[in-house]
Each structure stands twice: as structure tokens, then as C-alpha cells.
Specification:
Belongs to the fimbrial protein family. Keywords: Fimbrium, Signal. The chain has 118 residues and is an all-beta fold. The protein has a single domain, classed as Immunoglobulin-like. The protein contains no helices and eight strands.
Length: 118
């Protein structure tokens, strides 16, 4: 909890990627959907509900692409595949402090990724 210093502070950045196999010259878009946090901070998802008293408080989970918060429910063009084969969409997840204080507990969120190929 000492990592959080006030609203807007972040912790536990974790990179991950969506791995694809595409044809050459394919334009790839991704859309991330989930329950936005009540704070309305860009890219911050609400935490999943847990049994009473076990959910963390004062934080949400923020998703980023190229170090920029992802606008939820919006197609993002992530690139064009130049050669047949593997293509990786790099993303990052991190905890984002939304409240004046943070309390420990379960801190999971759910997002759905929709891919569009052109």
C-alpha cells in the first residue's frame, strides 16, 4: 500500500501482449470493453465484485497501449502487419489510485478484447 501516494498514483505495471498470426498488409484494430471505474479516469476499469469485505478499495485497474491509457469501448488502430506471420499488440496493466486512501484486498478486473482485421 505504501506505493500509492494519492489519487493518480500507480503501482505494479505489468506488460502483456495479444499475440496474432496475420497475413501481410493487414490493418489490425483492438477494442477493449469492460466496466469503467466510477472515477471516469481514461482506461481505468472497476474492480470485480468479491464477497463482502474482501475487495480492495480506492483503486482500479488501468490499461495502456504504447504508454497511453486506452479509451474503453473504442477501436484503436494498433498497426499494419508488414509480412505474413506473427504480430504482437503490446499492452500494460497497472493499478491506479482513484480514492483518497487505499485499502488492501482482492483487486481483479475483467476486460474483453475485440479484434478487427482489414
Amino acid at each position: 500500500m505504501s506505493t500509492f501516494t494519492g489519487p493518480g498514483s500507480v503501482a505494479a505495471e505489468t506488460p502483456f501482449a495479444i499475440e496474432l498470426n496475420c497475413d501481410a498488409n493487414t490493418r489490425v484494430q483492438v477494442k477493449l470493453d469492460g466496466s469503467p471505474h466510477a472515477s471516469a479516469v481514461e482506461g481505468v476499469l472497476a474492480l470485480n465484485s468479491t464477497p463482502s469485505g474482501t475487495m480492495a478499495k480506492g483503486i482500479g485497474l488501468q490499461l495502456l497501449h504504447n504508454s497511453t491509457p486506452v479509451k474503453l469501448a473504442t477501436n484503436i488502430t494498433v498497426g499494419t502487419v508488414t509480412n505474413d506471420g506473427n504480430y504482437s499488440i503490446p499492452l500494460t496493466a497497472r493499478y491506479y489510485q482513484t480514492g483518497a486512501s487505499v485499502s488492501g484486498g482482492v483487486a481483479n478486473s475483467t476486460a474483453t478484447f475485440t479484434l478487427t482485421y482489414n
